[in-house]
Amino acid sequence: MKKLLLSLLTFTAIMTQAQNPFFQEFGTYKEATPFSKINNSHYEEAIDRGIALAQQEINAIVNQRSRPDFDNTIVALENVGADLNRVLNVFYPLMSAHSDDEMMQISLTVSAKLSEYSTSISLNEGLWNRVKEVYENRAMFNLDTEDQMLLQRTYDSFARSGANLKGENRETYRKLSAELSELTTKFGQNVLKELNTYEIWLTKDDLEGLPESSVEAAALAAKEKNREGEYLFTLAQPTYTAFMKYSSRQDLREKMYRLYNGRNQKGEYSNVDVMKRIVELRHQIANLLGYKSHAQYSLERTMAQNVDNVYGLLDQLRDAYRPAQQAEFAAIEEYASKLEGREIKMQPWDYSYYSNKLKNAKYSYSEEELRPYFELNNVIDGVFGLATKLYGLKFTKIDNVDVYHADVTAFEVTDENGEYVGLIYTDFFPRASKRPGAWMTGFKDQSNLNGVMTRPHVSIVMNFTKPTADKPSLLTPYEVETFLHEFGHALHGLLANTKYASMSGTSVYRDFVELPSQFNENYLTEKEFLDGFAKHYLTGEPIPQEMIDRIIASSQYGAAYACLRQLSFGYLDMAWHTTTSKIEDAAQFENEAMKGVEMFTPVDGCALSPQFSHIFSGGYAAGYYSYKWSEVLDADAFSMFLKNGIFDKETADSFRKNILMMGGTENPAELYRRFRGQDPSIDALLIRDGIKK
Fold it and tell me: Which of 145, 331, 432, 602 lies 20 to 30 A from 123 at CA?
C-alpha cells in the first residue's frame, strides 16, 4: 500500500511537471514562447524549480576538484540559471504588458525568493573564492576582449554585491537586499493599481476643444461600460496628453493635472513611505559596500563614472537652455494674454494648451491635423523600412507563433542574405492590464557560445491611440517618434552578435543604452524618410511638402522646455540618491531638488516622486541623467549621417558593427570613438534644438 501511494505521488508529480510548459523545451517555431499554454499557476512552481536547479549548478561549480579557470568557473557561472531565466523572461515582460492581480501577487511572493537566491550567489564564499582566483590569475588565460569583459563584470558583480563582506555585515546585506526587492516591486504595482482606479466622466458640454479622436475614444470607453451618451476619460498617457493639449476648459485641465500629479500620495496605494524606505535601504547598502551614497555606487559602472560628471552635464545643459526656456515662456504668456483678452500667468495645466496654440499660430501646425498621414500600418512599414535601408533587414508578419494578447503581432526578421535574425513582437494599444508608457523588452536573449547561435526574441510595447469603429489607429508625430525610439532599442537587441547572453544587446552601461533608441528619433524630421510612408489613410496622397516643412520648422519649438523638464527629473533623481539624511517632508525635498530648473510654482498636493517608477522600481536609480547623456551622444552620432547622407550605407555599417552588434563587450566610450572618430560634445544637440546657430 505504501509503495502504491509513493507511486501515485511520483506519477502525480510527473504529470504536473508535464503540464507546465516551462518544464520542457518550447517545441514551437523558432522556439517561440507558447503563451497560450502558459497560465498563472505555472510561474511560481517554475521559478521554484529554476532556483533549485540553479543552486545545484552553483554547487557543482564550487565543489569541483579542478583548479579554478575561466571555463570551469566564469563561463560555467554565465550558464547558470538557464531554466530560471526562461521563466523570468516571460513573467516580468508580461507583468508590465499584460498583468492581473494574481500575477502581481505572485511577483510579490517570488521577489523575496529571487532576492534570496541572488544574494545566496553573491555571498557564496566558495564561489567568490573561485572567481577571485581566476581574476587574480587572469594573465595565465588566453582571453579575448569579450572574455576579459565577462571576467571583469563577473568579478565586479560579486564585489559590488557584498562578496567581500564578513560576518554580521553579510547577513545585514542579505536582509536589506530582500526588503529592497520587495519594496521596489510594491512601488511599481502601486503606480499601476492606482492609475487604473481613475475614471473621469464628462458630458457633451465638457468636450470643447478636444479632437474628434479623443471624443470618439471616450465615447467608446463609456459605451463599453453601458453608459452611452457619456464620455469616459482616464489617466492613460495618450488620453491625458491629448486632454491637456486640446481641452479649452481650464477648470477641467486643472482637475486632470491635479489627479495625474497627485497620484500615490495617500490611501491604499500611497508610495510616500515606500520610496523613503527604498532610499534609506539603498543608502545603507551603499555604505556597507564602502560607498558614500547610492549614486557613487551606481555610477561606478557607467560612462559618467561619478557624481561630479553627472552634475557637470546637467549644469552645462541647464545654463545653455535656461535662457531659451524663459524666453519661450514669456512668448507663450504674451500670446495667451492676447488670445484671452486678460493677463495670463501660466500654470502647469496651461502649458500644453497655450504652447500648442502658439505653435499652431506660428507654424499653422497641429499634430491632430497630421494624424491622417500616420496610419499605424503605414508607420509600421516606414519604421521597419528604416532598418531595411540602413541594415538590410526584412520583417515578415507570421501567424504560426503564439502571442500573449489579441493586440500583439509577431514578425520574423531576416538579414540581407535571408538569414534568420530573430523575432519581434509589437504591442501598441492601452489596456487595464498594461502599465503606461512605452518600452522594449525581450523574451529570449542572443548568444553564441561554443558555436551554438541563439537568436533573440524582442518586444516593443506602447500605448498608442486605439482604432475606433470608424477609423484606424492614427498616430501623432510624437507617437511616431516613440515608435522609432523603442524600435531603436529593438534593433540593439536584434542585431546583437556576442558570445555571452549577459553582454548581449541592451546589456550595456545605462547611460549608453539610450543611444540606439534616441538616434532613431532623428529620422522623424527627415523628408527623405517621411516620403516613404506618410500617406493620407483615405486618399493615399503623400504628406504635403508644406506639412513636412512645418514638422521640421517646429521640431525646435519647446525644445528648451523639454530639456529643462528632463533636467528636473535628473536633478531630483540625483538628490534622492546622493542624500545622506533622513527625509521627513518628501514634497519639500522634491521642490528643493528642482530649484534652478523649476518652471512653475509648486502645486500643493502634486509631486512626481511617488509615481517616479523609473528611479524607484525601474532600474534608473541615480541614472535618469542618462537620457540627456545619451541625447548628447545621439545628436553627435546623427551629425555623421547628416554629413554623409541619412541612409549612407558605409556610415550605417559602422554604426551597426561598432554600436548595435557589440552589446556590452567593450567600454562604450571606446566603441563610440571607434564609430565617430572622436569624443562627443554637446554642440550637435544645441544646434539641433536651435539653441546654437
Answer: 145
Q: Which residues of 273-301 are buried (b: 16+ CB within 10 A; e: fewer)?
A: ebbbebbbbbbbbbebbebebbbbbbbee
Q: Which residue in 486, 526, 590, 631 is the catalytic one?
A: 486
Using DSSP bridges, classify how beta strands 408-414 and 231-233 pair: parallel, antiparallel or unpaired.
Answer: unpaired
**Strand 439-444 versus strand 408-414 pairing type:** unpaired
| First-to-final CA distance of the chain | 89
| Residue 320 CB neighbours (<10 A) | 17
SS (H, E, C) 342-397: CCCCCCCCCHHHHHHHHHHHHHCCCHHHHHHHEEHHHHHHHHHHHHHHHHCCEEEE
Question: Is 416 annotated in the active site?
Answer: no
Residue-wise pLDDT tens digits, 221-247: 999 999 999 999 999 888 999 999 999
30-53 exposure pattern, b = at least 16 Cβ within 10 A, e = fewer = bbbbbbeebeeebbbebbebbbee
Please state, in angstroms and rounded to a whole number, the distance separating the CA atoms of residues 640 and 676.
Answer: 8
Q: In this structure, are residues 117 and 51 in contact, taking their beta carbons and an 8 Å threshold?
A: yes
Reading the block at residue 236, the C-alpha cell is 492613460
Q: Where are the domains of the chain?
A: 22-122+124-160, 198-262
Q: Classify residue 625 by burial, with Cβ atoms within 10 Å: 0-12, 13-18, 19+.
A: buried
DSSP 3-state of 443: strand
Q: pTM value?
A: 0.82
| DSSP character at residue 71 | I
Render pLDDT for 522-540 as a digit per residue (tens, 0 to 9). Answer: 999 899 999 999 999 999 9
CATH of domain 22-122+124-160: 1.20.1050.40
- CA 32 – CA 26 distance, rounded (Å): 7
Identify the CA nearest to 80 among candidates 181, 157, 165. Answer: 157
Sort residue 98 into left (φ over 0), alpha (ψ -120 to 50) or beta. Answer: beta
Of the chain, the percentage scoring pLDDT greater than 90 comes to: 87
